[in-house]
Amino acid sequence: MTKFFDNKDRVGASLILAFSLFYLRSSYSIPVDPFDAQVGFTSKTLPIFLGSCAFVISLLLLFISYLKSEGDSISEGVRGYDWKPVLALILLMAAYVTLFSFLGFVLASVLFLQSAFFLLGERRLLVSISVSLGLVLFLWLLLTQVFSLYLDGGTLYRVLGS
Amino acid sequence: MLDGILIGLETAFTPINLLMVLAGCFAGTFIGMLPGLGPVSAIALMIPVTYGLDPASGLILISGVYYGAVFGGSTSAILINAPGVSGAVATAFDGYPMAQNGNAGKALAVAAYSSFAGGTIGAILLLLCVPFLANVSLSFQSSEYFALMVFGCTAVAAFSGKGQVLKAVLMTLVGLMLATVGEDSSGAQRLTFGNAELSDGISFLLLSMATFALAEALSMVLKGESKSKDNESKEMTKVSFQSLKLSRDEVTEIAIPVGRSSFLGFLVGVLPGAGATIASFLGYGMERNLASEEQKKQFGKGSAIGLAAPETANNAASTGSFVPLLTLGIPGSATTAIMLGALLSYGVQPGPRLFIDNPAVFWSVIVSMYLGNIVLLILNLPLIPYIAKILQVPRQFLTPIILFLSLMGVYLVSFNSAELSIMLVIGVIALVFRILDYPLAPMLLGFILGGMLEDNLRRALLIWDGSYDFLLQRPITAIIMMVTVIVLLTPMFSEIFKRASGNR
């Protein structure tokens, strides 16, 4: 089983196969305009066609990858990849996105940049704080003072302010 | 045509638009120089900035970014053997050895002059081709447009690398499928699952930022490219102003190859889907084949012709790729696909009508392309010794800043933090497909063409009373569909043919 999925084409095709099945199933429940139905082209005509094509082609790709004795191995392809910082960065971005409304643009952005610099190996605190704070404040000033855009100060700021 | 050029000159030479060309070229050069970030990412990062501008200025800025990024990509290819874009890979073949031989400045100068020549010849050819093609395509109806959209989608897939055709077709389909999310032209909500964030569909900016800028930056970290190669880059990026000069003999040596590669590059660029990468490799290959035995030995070891040919072809192809975009409204490459998305978001519909409805946009883009080339040569080249210092900025700072700017780019357009969550999810999925070697450019192309494809098909069916006969009965539609089938099937059959001959 593990060996079966140690193939780039196969895993990609399987993922798209699953997506196309889900897409096809959802496409059948799209509401149809009676006028369109008379023309023979409704809101779900193209989605069903596309979903079917993706289903057939991903199956074909799976079949071809199965016939090939050798394929692009995932384990060989990803050898030497640095997974930890990538996963940490993704989690960090998720935290940034989640906390954005609460912490506000300035605080959330400075914390995000600061943590990301640290994650990627920057240990000079003074330098990294200067870069993150400098960049965020520059953007904040540019957007709010020059372009007159409103940037949310965040729930925390409002709570503390009141 | 002369009136058009005058309109273009008038628009392009306004102070704000001149500033846009300058800013675009500089920003593009900076971004394009960063290994891993090419013109597509550079344009995606700049799109939010252009939203506050009028269409002509926005497109001029984007064109400047495009040229700047292509130029920047070549610079990093020459100085640290890290082509920022696939189109600059062939540049590194001889550019990097030249730099290693102590001729970094000369290599950069050859690249800049060749790019300028390629861009200039390309711009002249574009000037001649576009109005003619635009006039021809004015007779197009919905059925022809539908056929063209299908051709645009399949051409990209057909020009994919060996063994990539099916994957590219599949990714184009995924893009088309994503384009169906949201409200369609009849007002029906499709595949939104009751989510209000999806009722307007997936934003093009969000998708392009997630699949290119975000996934690209994460991919750099994954491959360990986020760690600085300080020792290597500091030495190689020391370029003096004096070393940027070329001798008369050197100019004579590259003049003819530059001329040839310009025409080749432009023609390849015009083909939807072929693009700068194929053009640069073809240019390199052609000059290698035409070179004398003595010159051939220099290829790969720092040949000026080997550097000039791909650089010229790649720039001429970048210009050529605007032909299908401006005349037919179909993008020939991922970069022009992003530009098409940007134009649509301004409410400007590229295609033959652009020539008539928005002559200022149409001609100013063409004129500003040429201005961009001049800016790159006159201003960017002398600044290269300073700009090259960006390659010394530690990657542990650059990568998080790219991620931050990508997220902010999307947020500042929608002011909706929920879109950032969608962007992150798409970015992670894009990273997975990048690891699995599934091309993402066809997906973006499918996504951008999807809406137009469906609208034109719907309209054609309305005109033809629900019959698909228009595919065969309208001659131009039938020809385009036939070409589509041939273009799509050729790589498959050639693969089968090769295998069959190999087995014999």
Task: Provide a brief overview of the structure.
Chain A is mainly α and 162 residues long.
Topology, please?
The complex is a heterodimer of chains A (162) and B (504).
Chain A: H1 8-27, H2 34-39, H3 45-67, H4 74-77, H5 83-103, H6 105-119, H7 125-146, H8 155-161
Helix pairs in contact in A: 1-3, 5-6, 6-7
Chain B: H1 2-12, H2 15-33, H3 39-50, H4 55-80, H5 89-137, H6 142-158, H7 165-179, E1 182-183, E2 189-190, H8 204-222, H9 230-236, H10 248-270, H11 275-290, H12 293-298, H13 304-320, H14 322-328, H15 334-345, H16 354-357, H17 359-387, H18 395-414, H19 417-435, H20 441-463, H21 470-473, H22 475-503
Antiparallel strand pairs in B: 1-2
Any key phrases for this structure?
heterodimer, A: 162 residues, mainly alpha, 73% helix, flat, B: 504 residues, two-stranded antiparallel ribbon, 22 helices, 76% helix, globular
Tally of separate helices of chain B: 22
Largest sheet of chain B: 2 strands, antiparallel
Strand order of the largest sheet of chain B: 1-2
Number of domains of chain B: 1
- What is the chain-wise order of helices and strands of chain A? HHHHHHHH
Low-confidence stretches of chain B: none
**Which parts of chain A are unreliable, with pLDDT below 50 for 5 consecutive residues or more?**
none
Instruction: Determine Rg of chain B (CA atoms, Å).
Output: 22 Å
Largest interface: chains, residues each:
A-B, 71 and 58 residues
Structural class of chain B: mainly alpha
| Total domain units of chain A | 2
Count of distinct strands of chain B: 2
Descriptive account of the structure:
The complex is a heterodimer of chains A (about 160) and B (about 500). Chain A has helices spanning about 10-25, 35-40, 45-65, 75, 85-105, 105-120, 125-145, 155-160. Chain A has about 160 residues and is mainly α. In chain A, helix 1 packs antiparallel against helix 3 (about 45-65), helix 5 runs antiparallel to helix 6 and helix 6 (about 105-120) packs antiparallel against helix 7. The model of chain A has no long low-confidence stretch (mean pLDDT about 85). With about 500 residues, chain B is mostly helical. Chain B is built from 22 helices and two strands. In chain B, strands 1-2 form a two-stranded antiparallel sheet. In chain B, strand 1 and strand 2 (about 190) form a beta hairpin. In chain B, helix 5 packs across helix 10 (about 250-270). The mean pLDDT of chain B is about 80. The chains are: A mainly alpha (about 160), B mainly alpha (about 500). Chains A and B meet through helix 1, helix 2, helix 3, helix 5 and helix 6 of A and helix 7, strand 2, helix 8, helix 18 and helix 19 of B.
